[in-house]
Amino acid sequence: xxxxxxxxxxxxxxxxxxxxxxxxxxxxxxxxxxxxxxxxxxxxxxxxxxxxxxxxxxxxxxxxxxxxxxxxxxxxxxxxxxxxxxxxxxxxxxxxxxxxxxxxxxxxxxxxxxxxxxxxxxxxxxxxxxxxxxxxxxxxxxxxxxxxxxxxxxxxxxxxxxxxxxxxxxxxxxxxxxxxxxxxxxxxxxxxxxxxxxxxxxxxxxxxxxxxxxxxxxxxxxxxxxxxxxxxxxxxxxxxxxxxxxxxxxxxxxxxxxxxxxxxxxxxxxxxxxxxxxxxxxxxxxxxxxxxxxxxxxxxxxxxxxxxxxxxxxxxxxxxxxxxxxxxxxxxxxxxxxxxxxxxxxxxxxxxxxxxxxxxxxxxxxxxxxxxxxxxxxxxxxxxxxxxxxxxxxxxxxxxxxxxxxxxxxxxxxxxxxxxxxxxxxxxxxxxxxxxxxxxxxxxxxxxxxxxxxxxxxxxxxxxxxxxxxxxxxxxxxxxxxxxxxxxxxxxxxxxxxxx
Length: 500
Fold this sequence. Notes:
This protein has helices spanning about 20-35, 125-135, 190-200, 240-255, 265-285, 295-315, 320-335, 375-380, 385-410, 420-445, 455-475, 485-495; strands at about 55-60, 65-75, 80-90, 105-110, 115-120, 145, 160, 170-175, 175-180, 210-215, 225-230, 235-240, 290, 345, 355-360, 360-365. It is of the alpha+beta class. The strands form four sheets. Strands 6-10-11-9-8-7 form a six-stranded antiparallel sheet, with helices on both faces. A hairpin with a 3-residue loop joins strand 8 and strand 9 (about 175-180). The two termini are about 45 Å apart.
């Protein structure tokens, strides 16, 4: 794993800083992290000015030179984040082989030797050494490493960090295993581990088998927190987002020369709908399904309204639609009030095109942790399966608008001044999205899922909630993309649907 922007793989030396030597390093990290953390894509507190962090855990999981610290820090807004910190001798610089954006800063040992502190997910040597902890499945200070009974974890696999994730960091070991390094840490039973185990029990479901995990040691008054999950590596030709946006872009560009109907992604969208229905059926069988009660419907509605109220504080553009959105949420409550049965079950919780891999055996759904930042008890709460469907339908809309931006060469916020040619391309993008959404719904229904188009009230409420979530995210991270979810919110607030 060498080349520009990647660390040079150098032999590790068993001698190096001891745990006592590295104690001042944690203090130095506390000083450096307030400036470094906000630049990470997985850091969720960008709307908050970070001024202080406090260490909760720091264990030397790989001794030697360089060494690897597995750490958890609490920020001053109460959130907890995990960092894998590499500790190498000498000051940071080009000769170290550490990418500039991975360098956290420089520390010193008690005897005055300088140390480079860096985010170690880019270091294949350290991560390969970390894998040995899962092979051994033995405690390490305040950490526990567990293996799934019967799981085979081959040692000596070459590590490489994967790109594209936002909330966590994934590391592949050859073509055999993938380690998910959870970034935002919460105590309690991990929902993804539960879900992957349930899908493994069901058998024949498009998901990745769990192999092992790392967690903190349970202490009096504190539940253990899962830090990493090792699972089967899914070889694929790409994720749904990259494949769909490429197809959408080709379709939009074709509008210049052709009026052929859009839909090169339709077959894949239908198969993705089938895979989603199979996952939902397996989760219902393994983890149970029931009918939502009226108090639960009221609580769900209150949650949606609270999320809207939170977003209104930071996204003034939502204000003209607030009344229509609240009406859509109230309609969901009325469905239950009038006695219509509303099945609920465990769902994916954060389903979108980026959470699906196109493997040789078909689509495989991944990342079952739910929405990061929400407590585990909320993530595991039974929900209507149409919530996942609505989230995926929103993803098709995003893929179309992203592809349109690639064709036009301008971000969404600058498209209002486009000429009639741009308007024609925009119509083609919308047509591609509608065609893909219909295919997804058809595949979902064909595989035994309830046709989401027969539940327009639920679909509208959950699509609206997802669009509000997107608006808040874009306002915090990519303001130039805010027009995409705002346009969706306006349509949904006035009763519009995305499957027509």
